[in-house]
Amino acid sequence: MQSSINLQAIERHHTKGLTHKSTWQRIILLFVLGYEGAGALAGGMLLMLAPDGRLMDMPVELMHGTFSDFMIPGLILFLMGIFISYSFFIVLRRKRYDWFFALVSLGGLLIWFWIEIAIILELHWLHAMWDCPF
Question: Taking the model in full, what pTM does it have?
Fold first, then answer.
C-alpha cells in the first residue's frame, strides 16, 4: 500500500513537471507562429498591393530577373501566412496534429528564406529579425 501511494505521488510530480514544460514550449511556439504568421500575411499583402515593391521600398531588380515583379512571391508569402496562422489556431486550440502543422509551417518558412536568399544573392539584416538561422 505504501509503495503504491509513493508511486502515484511520483507519477503526479512527473506529470506536473511535463505539463509545465509543455506549456512553456507551447507558449513559445504560439509566439513564433503568431509573429511569423502576421509578418507573412502583412508582407505578402504589401507585395501584392504594390508588385513594384514601392510599399516595402524594394526594387524589382533585387530579384535578379527571377520574377518580373513581386506579385507571385507576394501571393506565395501571403498563402504561407494563412497556413502559419491556421497552424497557430490549431496549436492554440490543442487540436490533433497541432505540432505537426507547426513543424510543417516553420519548415516551409525556412525553405522560403533559403530560396529568398538564393534569389537576392545576399543576406539582409531582416533575415535575422524574421528568425532565419544564418
Answer: 0.76
